[in-house]
Specification:
Structural class: alpha+beta
Strand order of the largest sheet: 3-1-14-13-16-10-7
Largest sheet: 7 strands, mixed
Number of strands: 18
Strand content: 25-35%
Distance between the termini: 16 Å
Order of helices and strands: EEEEHEEHEEHHEEEEHEEEEEE
Length: 277
């Protein structure tokens, strides 16, 4: 059965705090051949200048997914709940570089990360400064959960693929996925960057099913100004998301923010991966 592909176009412009919880059906356009029994996901999004700007919507998203299972293997597998990755390594302040694919959370939390770039970095602000040789990164980004942020190197694209936690290489799907971003500046179709690319924002999430079909895509809400925070996530009624592609910013980290929108990430939150049948 063909599934509906939805594209959300909502933006939460963060000149003030914005926390939004909206049904996707009201904000998305779908294909004409959508099956009548398709149930769209619920969309959670918010943006603003401080942690409190998005804390409420992040907590709502967590509650919608259920209990955090941490690193528990789940034997038998959990049938509900969530996993979280905050990149902080039990309070680590070290800068950690990893190649692609990034397998650290494959077994413990059922997520594998890849990039067309050279790898990934987990780092506090001063570690981003050192890694990318750009002192402005100490002020234009802000962590949501202290202290480290996460970004691909040599690319602005991250792909997350899901597996059964504790099960090794057993492919899985999840009900939902959300991510926190810092310094998403571009809120609408204005400005030279948007005119070049004909799109609403620099940062995009695309959700795919096990068959590779695009299920849903949305731009991430923006909050103009340095060190802002944005959140975007969706939850389906069943586990159908096998892969998520994240485009964070206009370009790979390195350049100054301004002419281009440089964006890095913090927490990833997703539903308990369910083994593909």
């Amino acid at each position: 059965m063909r599934k509906r592909t939805l594209t959300s176009t909502l933006a939460a412009v963060g000149t003030m705090s914005a926390v939004m919880l909206v049904p996707a059906l009201k904000t998305a356009q779908g294909q004409d051949d959508t099956p009548k029994d398709f149930v769209p996901p619920t969309v959670f999004q918010g943006a603003g200048p401080t942690i409190s700007s998005i804390q409420g919507v992040v907590d709502q998203f967590r509650a919608a997914l259920g209990t955090d299972h941490g690193n528990a293997a789940g034997n038998p597998p959990f049938v509900s709940g969530r996993r979280e990755i905050n990149w902080d390594g039990l309070g680590s302040t070290a800068t950690s570089l990893a190649p692609t694919p990034f397998t650290n959370f494959l077994v413990t939390r059922g997520a594998l990360f890849t990039t067309p770039g050279t790898g990934f970095v987990q780092a506090p602000l001063d570690g981003l400064v050192t890694t990318f040789g750009n002192p402005t990164y100490n002020t234009i980004f802000q962590p949501f959960s202290q202290l480290r942020l996460f970004t691909p190197t040599g690319s602005n694209v991250t792909e997350a693929t899901f597996f059964q936690p504790g099960g090794g290489n057993i492919r899985a799907t999840t009900t939902g996925f959300g991510a926190i971003f810092t310094d998403v500046d571009q809120p609408d179709g204005s400005g030279p960057r948007s005119k070049r690319r004909n799109r609403a924002s620099s940062t995009l999430l695309e959700y795919f099913g096990a068959d590779g079909q695009l299920l849903f895509s949305s731009f991430v809400p923006a909050s103009p100004g340095d060190a802002s925070l944005s959140f975007f996530g969706i939850v389906f009624s069943d586990a159908r998301i096998a892969r998520v592609r994240i485009t964070s910013g206009d370009v790979a980290p390195g350049p100054n923010d301004g002419a281009v929108d440089v964006v890095v990430m913090d927490d990833f939150i997703y539903g308990e991966p369910q083994r593909l049948q």
